[in-house]
Every structure is written in structure tokens, then in C-alpha cells.
Amino acid sequence: MSARTPRVIPPWQLAAPALFVMAWGGNHFTPLLHMYETLGHYSTVTADLFLGLYVVGLVPGLLLAGALSDRYGRKPLVIAGVVAGITASILLGLGFSSELIICLGRFLVGLSVGVAMSVGTAWLKELSSAPFDLVARPTAGARRPALTLTIGFGLGAGVSGVLAQWGPLPTLLPYAVHILLSLAILPALFRAPESVPRSRVHGSLWLDLQVPLAGHRRFLRVVLPTAPWVFGAAGIAYAMMPKLVEAQLGELNLAFATLLTVVTLGTGALVQPQVSRLNSITHGRALLVGMGLMVVGVLSAVATSLTLSPALALGTGILLGAAYGITVVAGLVEIQRISTPTDLAGITGVYYSLTYVGFLLPVAFASLSGFVGYPLMLSLLAVACAGCLALTAVGLRRA
């Protein structure tokens, strides 16, 4: 009787858990905003600032890390990103009463997520093609990292929100879980193969930081008008909607915010594997489908702001989640279509930098809410979204 042949783990599956835990750390703060307002007595604007502050960390994480990974390899940068995420959770767990420590923790979270999105996405794309993977479909390089990140974002928010609502030590336990998960995936991460050739020659780091593809006609006309709506959808769904309906929910507001986050990102995760088929059916126009859903989702947010209905807020989360899931994968397919191995990480970092512009919407709306009502602001946003849909349609036709 022959010995059973040990299962060989595909290389991309060794690297994917790192993206998962970095995404977990990036979004487990989101449903806790109400806790920071009630237990920490932070203002709504300050809590939203905490939420959006990690965009500051995203900039070097998305842009600088990509160039560094082209020089020194994907694996060392991803390991550094995981370590940054662990450090961030330690600071956030211990610094609940300090705005400065929370801000520093949120910056490190942004740095970690930026590494996951630029370097991690490029790494998984490379590990999903020859010579590391000989059976993957052409769109696997876009679908696998996007799905891994989305599941991490969703589960991180879901578990942390439940622990904060009903578990002990609500200001500490959510962060402790993330730290333990991050430590648990490190052995697999160290076994993952490097995908950047050691023989790759580089000039100055400044030249590596330049991303000529950002001026590519297809990038400017097709990807650019859609990118900010990716996380704009997420920000509207699970940062704005809970605040609009919080008077109807009482003490369950944190639980509802958690539910909205999980539903939004869960819907996004469900639709992402279908983007390849959608692109086939629409002859490469899945972005238009995503943006069309985005317009409908923002209009639903307008209706929620008028009715203050939790049920309608949940429906808005589903619509915007589907729009997010389709748009982010379709956007990655577009940039991978025009990129080469030497500039994939850089253009991916630029793309995700643009997507996170939309995540600043909750902060901007909270700051303006004393002067302009949410129904009017969201209505203007719907008009802007429809305009971007039209620009993308024109760009695809000319491309």
C-alpha cells in the first residue's frame, strides 16, 4: 500500500492569508465608530476623522511600497505590512482614551492596507500565472486578491462589531483577535515564494516611483472616472447609513452598523467571481454595470436620508455592495490589461489610491452637515455618479 501523497498548497494560497489579515485590520475599526462616540465621548466628526485618517497611511503604503517591492521583492514588503498591522492593533487596543495614539494606530493601519492592496495584489496576480500557477483563468489575478481583501474587510468588521456589542472588553478584544490571527498566518507567509526576479535591474528609487501608465489613455478615460466610487460606495453604505438611522435603533446601533458592513462587503464578495462572466456577456463593459448599480445605490441612499428607514438602509448596502464588488474587480482587470510585470505594483497602487478618495466622503459630509442636509448632498452625489458613468461609457467606446 503506497503512502498518501502530501497535498501541495498552491503558492498563491500561502500569500493570500497575509492580504486577508491586513484587510481585517483595515476594516475592523469601522463598526466601532459608535463605541468611540459613546464610551470614548469623541464627537462624530472626530470619529469619522479616525475612520478616514488611515488614508494618510495609505499613500506611502500604496505608492512607495509598490516601488520598493519592485526593487526588493514582494514578500519582504508584505511581511512588513503584516507587522505594521499588528503594531497598529496594539496601539488601538491600548490607546482608547488617547486621540494621538488612535491617530498613530490608524496611520499604521493605512500603511498596512496600502501594502496589501498594491504589493499584495501584484504578488497574488503574479502567483496566479505561470510559472507558479498553470491552470488559473486569465482573470484570476484580479479576482483572487480582490476577493481575499473583500472577505477580510467583511469578516474583520463583522467579528469586531459582534465582540464590541456583546463581548467582554469591547475596547480591547477586537484588536486582540486581529493580532492573534496575524501571528497565526506568518508561518505560511514565510513559505510563500518570491515572484520578483532577483536579476531585475533598477535605477534610482525616484525613477521607480514614477508611474507612466497613470497617463495611459485607457486609464484616464475608463479607470479614473470609476475609481473613487469603489470605496465611496463602501463609505456611504456602512459609515453614513448607520448614522442616518441611529435614532430608530437605540442601543442596537453598533450591531446594525456591523450588519450593514457585513452585508455590503458580503454582497461584494458574492458578485466578484461573476465579473469575468459579466465582462464576457457585456463585451468588456462590466465597469458600466458596476457604475449603473452605483447610481441606483446612491439614489437609494437619498431615499434613506429622507425616510430614515433601517430596512431601506440595508437595501442600500446591498446595492452599493454589488456596485463595489463589480467595479473594483473590473477596474483591476483594466489596469492589468495595460500593465507589464515591471509596473504592475506601481499602477495598482495608483489605482487603489484613487479608490480611497471616495472613503473620505463620510468625513466631508459630517463636516458639512451643519450647513447642508444629507438629502441634498446625496442628491448632488448621485448626479456626479451619473456623470462619471457617462464619462466611462464614452471612454470605453473610444478605447
Helical run tally: 17
The helix fraction, in percent, is over 70%
Number of strands: 0
Question: What is the CA–CA distance across the termini?
Answer: 60 Å
The general outline is globular
The helix/strand class is: mainly alpha
Q: How confident is the prediction overall: mean pLDDT?
A: 88
Rg over CA atoms, rounded to whole Å, is 20 Å
Q: How would you characterize the largest beta sheet?
A: none
Order of helices and strands: HHHHHHHHHHHHHHHHH
Unreliable stretches: none
Strand content: under 5%
Please tell me about this protein's structure.
The chain is mostly helical and 399 residues long. The protein has 17 helices and no strands. The chain has helices spanning 11-27, 33-38, 44-72, 74-94, 99-127, 140-166, 173-191, 205-209, 217-223, 227-245, 253-271, 275-281, 286-307, 310-338, 344-355, 361-368, 374-398. Helix 1 runs parallel beside helix 4 and helix 1 packs across helix 6. It starts with 10 loop residues before the first helix and ends with a helix. The model has no long low-confidence stretch (mean pLDDT 88).
